[in-house]
Design brief:
- The protein has helices at about 1-15, 60-70, 95-100, 120-125, 140-155, 160-170, 205-210, 225-235, 250-255, 310-325; strands at about 20-25, 30-35, 50-55, 175-180, 190, 195-200, 220, 240, 245, 265-270, 270-280, 285-290, 295-300.
- By secondary structure, it is α+β, with helices and mostly antiparallel strands.
- β12 (about 285-290) and β13 form a beta hairpin.
- α2 packs across α6 and α5 crosses α6 (about 160-170).
- The chain is globular and about 50 Å long.
């Protein structure tokens, strides 16, 4: 923990990031620490229970977790076609497994989504075709996880309510939610003039913003304290406070379904299926070493006030290397 603190303190001092909430989890100890400031005009020190925009960590904390639960309950299958759950698709034959592995052939993003309304964006996503040359190779795609969010909504009735009921409530993640209340306890992200200035308590991701703040690929806000519960569940083979959140067979599935750099929802570290990780555009990272029962959480706002702040991305990779090796 001392080495991690030193590296993060340096990142704050050199203004790679304004501040960070971070934790290192081991079988016998969980250390939670807070450094620096939020960023923005108001000088607010980072403190416990501050909420961060998780960006693409939404994919693993919310969407992947719920999809894995539905797989265990046999409410869907990895081999199911997306068209069984989401209608009016140009490519209904994409499998659930390929969306989770980012091997569907769907592009990473839509080039023109900034100019689209909510309904136009939905239509554009449904009309997007996989690219033949990208099939069965990894192409990280927000679109695939937007579709997975729609799958959850079809099965459970509502994505937001499903995540709260099936993930957040059993894990006692009371401060994890889509669309948080506007308070100074929510760490701001980027300054965007077109959106009224510094973005706080509203999802940063442009597609999630146009989709109303609730999506399978982005939109979730959480705290360091809540995410320690989530990580402990993974490190305890799916159990949190004597309650089975993920079935044990899911962890076998995560090992068996590895393809190139990925498994179901997660990235794998150097083709080692017991080493899982994921990052978010706003700056956060989660890392799990399931064999050594260790976890790492770093929550930060590296894009405040601008996404041109990129030095943290390299530092984050160095921290991951030190954690896994």
């Amino acid at each position: 923990m001392e080495a991690l603190t030193k590296r993060l303190q340096q990142a704050v001092t050199t203004k790679q990031i304004h501040g960070v909430s971070y934790a290192l989890l081991t079988p016998t100890k969980t250390d939670l620490e807070y450094l620096g400031m939020q960023g923005g005009e108001q000088k607010i020190a980072i403190a416990p229970q501050m909420q961060y925009d998780l960006a693409s960590l939404t994919k693993v904390v919310a969407t992947t977790t719920r999809i894995l639960q539905l797989l265990a309950k046999q409410k869907l299958s990895l081999e199911d076609e997306i068209g069984n759950y989401v209608f009016d698709l140009a490519a209904p034959h994409i499998k659930i497994k390929d969306l989770l592995l980012h091997t569907s052939g769907l592009p990473a993003d839509l080039a023109n989504y900034h100019n689209l309304s909510r309904l136009e964006l939905i239509t554009a996503i449904k009309n997007t075709m996989p690219r033949a040359k990208m099939k069965k190779s990894v192409c990280y795609s927000d679109l695939g996880f937007i579709l997975l969010g729609w799958v959850i909504a079809t099965i459970d009735g509502d994505l937001d309510e499903s995540i709260i009921k099936n993930v957040c409530t059993p894990l006692k993640m009371a401060s994890t939610q889509y669309k948080p209340q506007l308070t100074l306890n929510v760490v701001p992200t980027e300054y965007q003039a077109k959106r009224g200035g510094l973005i706080r308590a509203v999802v940063h991701d442009g597609k999630a913003y146009r989709l109303g703040g609730v999506s399978g690929h982005a939109g979730l806000f959480s705290t360091l304290e809540d995410l320690t519960n989530f990580m402990h569940m993974y490190l305890q083979n799916g159990i949190f406070q004597q309650r089975q959140i993920l079935s044990p067979e899911i962890f076998t599935l995560l090992k068996d379904q590895c393809f190139e750099t990925r498994t179901l929802g997660w990235q794998v570290w150097q083709n080692q299926p017991t080493k899982l990780w994921h990052t978010g555009f706003t700056g956060p990272v989660l890392a799990l070493d399931l064999q050594r029962k260790r976890g790492l959480i770093c929550l930060t706002n590296r894009i405040c006030p601008t996404r041109k702040n990129t030095e943290w991305i390299q530092t984050r990779q160095e921290i991951l290397t030190e954690f896994f090796e």
